[in-house]
Q: What sequence folds into this?
């Protein structure tokens, strides 16, 4: 079905809209901008709409500041017009319209044109008639590269396109560390470097450009770490007052949960973060066959991938932690 979409796009120039999920991460930004650069080079009119702004380092991605990119939260009035004008909408790196936030959700769900999903999360929403969905893929950016291959379009991949896609491969694979990293991932990466992507530039932009608040947020989170469930799980937490003292801004705790897995013997790591309204946001990471997608789905209204998932709780920080420890203990016994 996705090949039908490619065939349709080859016939003439189209008006195309690309959206991605709320709190766009490196793969969301990389796949959206990479696909946009490619489609523009192929002659289409393309707009990229992010529900809210990504972190500052991601805003330095090639093309983010272009006129064809908008942030819905900053310009809510122009949003419906973008959907009205589009003939084809690409939903990238999310599996259901509820992931784009309240403003965009009804527009994505009710889009009357060709509504196309490209994503690697589990359980894609059936409302997308055209979809390229594969949980075997480590990143949506890698899937975009696959589409470019299917389209025989590598000649249209410029350095800006390549650098965005490689950024998605790098961030969603934990710099080629996670089990989803395959030989195919490396050959795609090689191809992107040949097309002008610079791995060192991506790395410097993303990982050596932190605000001090991120360092302090990690400090509070790491010093909260403790082992539970027979030392098989690590729990890290950030209270609202920790975040205030750290000067936390959105995105500062990204990646923190992974440090729990760096402790010998730990198979599951969980980060609890209390937001200003008292809601507890949860991040889950695991190694091997430990399925945190199932676990987050069953107990914390969440989901994601086998080794990386999210969730939430309204029960308050200490009660959520108590329940979490109890569930982890049962699970990992
Ligand atoms: Mn992704």
A:
């Amino acid at each position: 079905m996705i090949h039908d979409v490619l065939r349709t796009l080859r016939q003439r120039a189209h008006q195309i809209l690309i959206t991605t999920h709320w709190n766009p991460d490196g793969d969301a930004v990389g796949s959206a901008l990479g696909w946009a650069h490619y489609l523009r080079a192929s002659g289409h009119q393309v707009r990229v709409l992010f529900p809210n702004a990504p972190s500052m380092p991601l805003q330095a991605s090639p093309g983010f500041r272009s006129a064809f990119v908008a942030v819905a939260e900053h310009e809510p009035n122009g949003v419906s017009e973008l959907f009205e004008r589009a003939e084809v909408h690409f939903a990238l790196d999310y599996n259901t319209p509820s992931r784009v936030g309240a403003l965009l959700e009804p527009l994505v769900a009710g889009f009357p044109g060709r509504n196309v999903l490209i994503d690697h999360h589990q359980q894609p929403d059936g409302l997308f008639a055209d979809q390229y969905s594969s949980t075997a893929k480590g990143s949506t950016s890698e899937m975009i590269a696959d589409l470019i291959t299917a389209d025989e379009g590598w000649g249209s991949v410029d350095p800006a396109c390549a650098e965005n896609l490689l950024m998605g491969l790098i961030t969603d694979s934990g710099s080629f560390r996670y089990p989803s990293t395959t030989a195919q991932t490396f050959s795609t990466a090689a191809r992107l470097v040949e097309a002008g992507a610079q791995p060192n530039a991506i790395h410097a932009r993303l990982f050596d450009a932190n605000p001090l608040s991120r360092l302090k947020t990690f400090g509070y989170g790491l010093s909260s770490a403790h082992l539970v469930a027979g030392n098989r799980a690590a729990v890290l937490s950030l209270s609202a007052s920790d975040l205030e003292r750290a000067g936390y801004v959105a995105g500062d705790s990204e990646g923190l949960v992974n440090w729990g897995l760096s402790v010998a013997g730990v198979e599951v790591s969980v980060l609890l973060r209390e937001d200003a309204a008292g809601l507890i946001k949860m991040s889950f990471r695991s190694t091997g066959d430990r399925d945190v997608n199932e676990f987050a789905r069953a107990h914390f209204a969440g989901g994601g991938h086998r080794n990386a998932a999210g969730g939430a709780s309204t029960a308050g920080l200490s009660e959520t932690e108590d329940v979490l420890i109890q569930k982890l203990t049962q699970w990992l016994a």
User: Anything to note?
Assistant: The chain has a mean pLDDT of 96. The radius of gyration is 20 Å. The pocket of manganese (II) ion is lined by residues 27, 93, 120, 139-140, 172 (CB under 6 Å). The first strand starts at residue 15 and ends at 20.
